[in-house]
Amino acid sequence: MMKKVFLLLALLTLVVSCSLDDDGRNVSYEFVPIAKYELPDSLVFGKNYEFPISYVSPTDCNAFYGFEYDRRDSTRLIFIVNQVLESENCLPTTDTVETTLNFEVLYNYTYVFKFFNGFDANDEPTYITEEVPVKRP
User: Fold this and answer.
1) Under a CB-based contact definition with an 8 Å cutoff, are residues 67 and 44 in contact?
2) Is 18 a member of any domain?
3) Domain that holds residue 88
4) CB-facing half-sphere around the CA of 95: CA atoms within 13 A
5) 7-38 pLDDT, tens per residue?
6) Position with higher pLDDT, 7 vs 66
7) Which residues lie below 8 Å from residue 36, measured CB to CB, with a gap of 6+?
8) Which residues fall within 8 angstroms of residue 95, CB to CB, at 6 or more apart?
9) What's the burial of 11, exposed, middle or buried (CB within 10 Å: 0-12/13-18/19+)?
10) What is the rounded CA–CA span in Å between residue 88 and residue 32?
């Protein structure tokens, strides 16, 4: 699964780097750890939700690009993707960026959300896991 995610990011980087509108800026993409999120105690089948999610921007050259989302049965792996402007003038920051993940409840089972939390010492992804049951309307 992670190979698929990294392959997608590699392809995305390739498409951006091959742009005909080359303005001399190099851009890459990276996952950033999710610092905070809010989930309800339960979800209602058929309803749409907006989950507040925040992360700490590593540098002033990072900008929110979007979410990477992978589904495995009832499990949802959620990643924040940052666009990174390659520059020698990037400064570290501790700025918290807040965004919203739109989520539609399409199935009537308990969802397992796994929020990307960084990499461990073996360079394996780590996650914060939350289970949220679904109720009928």
Assistant:
1) no
2) no
3) 31-135
4) 14
5) 445 445 545 554 445 556 799 999 999 999 99
6) 66
7) 52, 53, 54, 55
8) 56, 57, 60
9) exposed
10) 20
**Average pLDDT in the 74-88 region?**
95
User: Does 10 map to a domain?
Assistant: no
Is residue 85 in a domain?
A: yes
What CATH number did the domain enclosing 35 receive? 2.60.40
Give me the phi and psi of 98, to 5 degrees please: -110, 135
Question: Torsion over CA of 125, 96, 30 and 62, rounded to 10 degrees?
Answer: -160
Provide DSSP, 97-117: EEEEEEEE--SSS-EEEEEEE
Q: Which pair of structure tokens corresponds to residue 93?
A: 């920051």
Amino acid (1-letter code) at residue 118 = G
pLDDT of residue 101: 97
The pLDDT value given to residue 98 = 97
pLDDT at 136: 86
